[in-house]
Amino acid sequence: MYSLAGKRCLVTGGSRGIGLAIAQHFAREGAILTLVGRNTDTLTDALGTLSPAQHVGSAADSQEAKHSFLDFDTPAPYGYDILVNAAGVSQNSLLSSTSADDVQALLDINLRGTILGCQAVLPRMTRRKSGVIVNVSSLLATKGGKGASVYAASKAGIIGLTRSLTAEVGRFGIRVNVLLPGYINTEMTKDQISSQIPLGRLGRVEEVADAAAFLAKNPYAHNCVLNIDGGLSGV
């Protein structure tokens, strides 16, 4: 298995929830973390749980962040070994009542941000002929859900992006995989009903982090679409 010790890892959405849990798990295995997020105060709090680590204090969907991914204390031409795209926002509104601004925000943060993150790290990974990308999608990308139409569409786009990238970059030694968490016990899903889930409970962020670590470390894991949903995708 691939070791995370000493690997430079960039995590978008790394200040809370699934992104922070992944960062903490990777740090325990010796990775050197850079976190990306919108709120500098929240990022600073997250850094207090990690060592060594640093942060890029800008939105993951911005062009500014795309360049910061490369320039923030990252010696050229090396760059990052691992990118985890975990930034995301949720939706709780019918399509008919979702404003154009909300549609744009969901697409920008969930999908465009993931695309920009991949664009930022791929040139150096390609030159180095190694690298790992773990994208975080959602069970709703394949299952859909009332009040989550735009969210589901944005997360489905991440699956399409991942599958396409695997064909583009595998020959350069770069592996790309995607996680599909179900209802995880975070601020985004705390009101969901666990009785819907065959295992009878919400997932834990640490369980998603374990799966992300597996995808990052297994040298033959490429083009994996991995459900972490307690069996909900089967009902």
Automatic annotation (TrEMBL):
GO molecular function, one term: oxidoreductase activity, acting on the CH-OH group of donors, NAD or NADP as acceptor
Keyword presence, Oxidoreductase: yes
The Ketoreductase domain, residue ranges: 7-208
Any single GO BP term: fatty acid biosynthetic process
Entries under Pfam families matching the protein: adh_short (PF00106)
Keywords from the UniProt entry: Oxidoreductase
Protein family according to the UniProt entry: Belongs to the short-chain dehydrogenases/reductases (SDR) family.
Designated name of the protein: Ketoreductase domain-containing protein
Lineage, opening ranks: Eukaryota, Fungi, Dikarya, Ascomycota, Pezizomycotina
